[in-house]
Amino acid sequence: MSFDVPADAYARFMGRYADPLALAFAAYAGAAAGQRALDVGCGPGALTAVLVGALGADAVVAIDPSPPFVAAARARFPGADVHEGSAEDLPFDDGSFDLVTAQLVVHFMSDPVAGLREMRRVAAPGGTVATCVWDHAGGSGPLATFWRAVADLDPGHPGESDLPGTREGHLVQLATEAGWERVDDGRLSVTIPFRSFEDWWEPYTLGVGPAGQYTAGLDEPTRAGLRDRCAELLPPAPFEETASAWCVRATV
C-alpha cells in the first residue's frame, strides 16, 4: 500500500505514535555508530531521523514507494540517500548494509515474505535485520478504539486485524518463511498524551491509511455517529493511550 497523502497528514495521524516508537525500535534493532543502515518503507522519516541521529546522515539510506513521503524525507535529511521504490524489489546489492530495518511497513507490503527476503538479501553477513508492526489483531495497537467503534456501528468491517504481522507470532512466521534464522521476537509499547478528544479525533479525518480512508468514505451523519461512539469509548480528557507493536530481529 502506498500512502498518497501529504507527509504532514501522516505525521499528524501516525507520526505521534511512530516517532516515539522509532526511538525504542532503533534501540531494539541495535543501531550504533559505525553501521551503514537501510530504512525500508521510511515514510516521512520517523525512524530515519533516529538512524541519522545515531549513525550520521551519510551512513543512512532510506526507501519508500510514496512520492510525497520520499520528497519529504529528502528535504528533511539532505545528507541521506533517499530512494523511491518498494520493499519487494530493493535496488541495492547483496550484503550492502550492517542494519536493515522496517518500521510499521510489513502489514502494508504487497508480498510481506518477498519484502522480508529482500531485507535479508541486502544485509551484510553479521548484520541485523529488524522489523515491527502494530498489534492490531490483539487490540493494543494505536487504532484499537477507532476500530472498536467501527465494529459497533459496522459489524462486518474487518478493520486492520487481518493484516500481515499484526497478530501474535505472525511476524516471526513471516520472517522465518523469508529465510531469517534464529529470529528473536519482542514487544514495544509507547504511551501518548492527548489534550482533548478533538486532538485525538481530527487526524482520522485526514484520509491517511485504512482508518482515514474508511472515515473519508462515510457520509456526514455516519461519520458523526462514528465520532460520537469513539468519544464514548475514550476516557475524559486529558487522557493517555498506550500502543504496542510486535517486533522481530535476526542476525544474518
UniProtKB/TrEMBL annotation:
Residues 38-130 form the Methyltransferase type domain. InterPro entries: Methyltransf_11, Methyltransf_Superfamily, SAM-dependent_MTases_sf. It comes from the Bacteria. One of its GO terms (molecular function) is S-adenosylmethionine-dependent methyltransferase activity. The keyword Membrane does not apply. PANTHER family: METHYLTRANSFERASE. This is Class I SAM-dependent methyltransferase. It comes from Nocardioides guangzhouensis.
